[in-house]
Amino acid sequence: MRSLPRHFGPRHSGPRLSGTVAALAVAVLLGASAFAPASASGSASVPRAAAADGTPDQTFTIRDPRIIESSGLAASRLHPGVYWTHNDSDDGPYVFAVDSRTGETVATITMEGVGEPRDVEAISIGPDGNVYVGDIGDNLNGSWDHVWIYRFPEPKRLKDTTVRATQFTVTYADGPRNAEALMVDPRTGRVYIASKNDNGGGLYEGPARLTPSGTNVFRRIGEVPWVTDGAFSPDGTELVLRSYFSARGYVWKDGRLGEDHAVHAPFQGQAESVTYTADGSALMFGSEGKESEVVREDLDNGKGSGGKGSGGKDEDSDGSPSGNGAGTADGGGTQGSATLGAFVLIGCAVLFFGFKRLRGKP
Q1: Which of 168, 37, 39, 158 is nearest to 99 (CA)?
Q2: Which residues share a beta bridge with 340?
Q3: Is 310 helix (H, G, I), strand (E, B) or coil?
């Protein structure tokens, strides 16, 4: 792990708690995991080991000791089973390609021509074949009057290399803010950013085309919950946004949010990232930490809710849990769902007040 001073002061990103608050948060998360809904096979919804049979796009562990704060995730369009990720904070201009078959890094990209990144929080791949990297974190929730997006073509060959990236300056029409989610519409190529704060966040739309000269103004087009990452489905019909404890899917039509529904997300200690698999059959959820796991959640009929085979809950058409229990084949698990809900509420309270306490420090 990084030495503690790198998380002090303005480099703090998200509710990284310490002391008693951190201990309570961990205890809540562990307790909630113990009551997570069972899958159709009766096994608890817990992360599976890295795919030993070499099958891509299964749950895997990031093995690279350099990647200890994986904060964004994007499925490669050119290399099946490979996922792009990066550290957050001031790690440097690096992006890593990780093979989901082994969890090993198969390429390290060094971006040049972009200055010094401040707080890289998100990554996405556009229909133009470019990788978009969002240096959009603002740890003091409005201390920087602009943030940046970096763009470079996805490499055709996986090897360590240096690429010249294009840098775009970004501002928000309603003033500076913190953000951790950047998504590129796979049909239009338009870039969107979801901000976060104590009361939720906003969805911001960038210009039709980003320009490297001048400033790209993003305008608020919708209200969203507290968001740590997001991803469009490969066909561009749905947008999934995740937070520390949950995820929701939104119908996406004509560049606007539509009807939403619950999406099954795993419990992770520092839930930071999400992406669709390249074929759109599942969601991959990532987290920070040394040897962090990326957890696959199968989709249910393309709606965005977790499939039974991945430990997801059955849901009615409106996204609410169905009456047959917490996703178990025998219909049991109602009591477990109530207990899980209690743990989640306690966890949210612990994190919220801990975050408030940290923000109150000089």
Answers
A1: 158
A2: none
A3: helix
Q: Is 210 exposed, middle or buried (0-12, 13-18, 19+ CB in 10 A)?
A: middle
Contact 26, 19 (CB under 8 A): no
Strands 238-242 and 247-253: antiparallel
Distance CA 316, CA 221 (A): 28
Low-confidence ranges of the chain (pLDDT < 50): 1-50, 52, 301-346, 348-362
Q: Using CB atoms within 10 A of its CB, is residue 306 exposed (0-12), middle (13-18) or buried (19+)?
A: buried
CB count, 10 Å around CB of 173?
10
Of 239, 208, 206, 245, the closest CA to residue 224 belongs to 239
Q: Which residue's structure tokens are 């239009």?
A: 188
Q: What does the H/E/C string look like for 78-119?
A: CCCCEEEEEECCCCCCEEEEEECCCCCEEEEEEEECCCCCCC
Q: Collapsing DSSP states into helix, strand and coil, what is residue 62?
A: coil
One-letter identity of residue 100 = S
Return the pLDDT at 53.
60
Phi, psi of 65 (to 5 degrees): -65, -15
Residue 185 CB neighbours (<10 A) = 19
What pLDDT does residue 199 have? 82
Q: Are the beta carbons of 332 and 325 closer than 8 angstroms?
A: yes
Q: What is the pLDDT of residue 164?
A: 97
What residues have CB less than 8 Å from 10, skipping those under 6 apart?
Answer: 139, 140, 143
CB 255 within 8 A of CB 98: no
Pick from 13, 240, 212: nearest CA to 121: 13
Taking residue 115's Cβ as centre, other Cβ atoms within 10 Å add up to: 12
User: What is the C-alpha separation between 125 and 187, in angstroms, rounded?
Assistant: 12
CB atoms near residue 326 (< 10 Å): 23
- Phi and psi angles of residue 340, each rounded to the nearest 5 degrees, phi first: -60, -45
Predicted local confidence at residue 23, as pLDDT? 36
Q: Given this model, what pLDDT does residue 347 score?
A: 52
